[in-house]
């Protein structure tokens, strides 16, 4: 392809997927993030913790706006309401095997003390949602057990946290 020709035919696997959204819930007043744990088949198959710390994620329904999907998934998986949504970026999650496109966002929430059990039983969800101080959540990056988008979101928040807090708290 890059040398001006075509290679011999190669068999490839492709997982067709629609758009998805991932949400980092952040409370700028308490400087806390809300992370979740739920069963992840890929983590289990890789021999890792089958319920790694993660951020909220879900499928965008047909023609659904990213903000609408983010708010819905946030409520289902954490019980939190999105007060504001800040786009982080759009990414191909695994372009070598999937057509999945991810919209990554940060949502302003009012965090809660401790933990909650959330999720939709009719979707087979059994989710533990836990509020973490920002630094405790950021320290999870060193464990090697976070999904890629959770790590990206926490890195983004680390770089943009002071500005985000200034804007969100000033316009509260």
From TrEMBL:
InterPro entries tied to this protein: NDP_pyrophosphatase, NUDIX_hydrolase-like_dom_sf, NUDIX_hydrolase_CS, NUDIX_hydrolase_dom
Cofactor names: Mg(2+)
Lineage: superkingdom: Bacteria
Catalysed reaction equations from the record: GDP-alpha-D-mannose + H2O = alpha-D-mannose 1-phosphate + GMP + 2 H(+)
Subunit note: Homodimer.
Family: Belongs to the Nudix hydrolase family. NudK subfamily.
Descriptive protein name: GDP-mannose pyrophosphatase
Species per Swiss-Prot/TrEMBL record: Candidatus Dechloromonas phosphorivorans
Record lineage: Bacteria, Pseudomonadati, Pseudomonadota, Betaproteobacteria, Rhodocyclales
């Amino acid at each position: 392809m890059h040398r001006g020709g075509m290679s011999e035919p190669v068999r490839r696997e492709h997982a067709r997927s629609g758009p998805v959204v991932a949400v980092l819930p952040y409370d700028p007043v308490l400087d806390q993030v809300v992370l979740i744990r739920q069963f992840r088949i890929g983590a289990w198959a890789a021999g890792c913790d089958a319920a790694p710390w993660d951020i909220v994620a879900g499928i965008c329904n047909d023609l659904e706006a990213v903000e609408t999907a983010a708010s819905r998934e946030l409520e289902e998986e954490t019980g939190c309401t999105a007060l504001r949504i800040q786009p982080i970026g759009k990414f191909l999650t695994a372009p070598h095997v999937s057509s999945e496109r991810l919209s990554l966002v940060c949502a302003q929430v009012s965090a809660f003390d401790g933990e909650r059990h959330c999720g939709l039983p009719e979707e087979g969800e059994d989710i533990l949602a836990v509020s973490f101080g920002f630094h405790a959540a950021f320290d999870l990056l060193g464990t090697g057990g976070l999904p890629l988008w959770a790590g990206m979101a926490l890195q983004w928040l680390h770089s943009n946290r002071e500005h985000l807090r200034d804007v969100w708290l000033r316009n509260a």
